[in-house]
Design brief:
globular; alpha+beta; 5 strands
Amino acid sequence: MSGVRPGTAASRDGTGSRGATGSRGVTGARPGGGARNGSPRAAGEERALTSVAAGDRFRGDEPEHTPRLWHVTLSVSGARSPLTEVRRALEQLAHDHPFLLTSRYAEDHAEIRYWEEARDLHDAAAVALRLWGEHRQTAGLPPWEIVGLEVIDRATYHQRIAAGYGPAPATPVGVHPF
């Protein structure tokens, strides 16, 4: 039995997906008299509908755990800090994590943009929400709180750029004041 989950609907020929014989490989009587052993259903017999559990994915061409690219914009804000300290801290963060594309900053807020490779949006957002707090000490970041988070897939990012929305393509990579 390869990759069959409880509650998975049987295929048209009465067998489970990918060669299995039904949910968890069980054979036996079906409602309406047909068997799950591959024999055709009786004329007029209806196939039972099943639901798909949250988080289940179609197991077709795309492997389930293939990472995707997500564009992340993290906004932080808090009490005023000297601009030189904010810049130095963001440069240290960029040095520690070269995946950072652009950081913009002011005395009381900053915005960080970068690409994250993750299995899904939830994983990318979880990493982004931990970024500031986990590196506050090592990079000397101000004690600001996260006030905004946007995570979009690569296709959406490119659609926005093509439509003239989002950051200007000429925005230089690095740490810059607002």
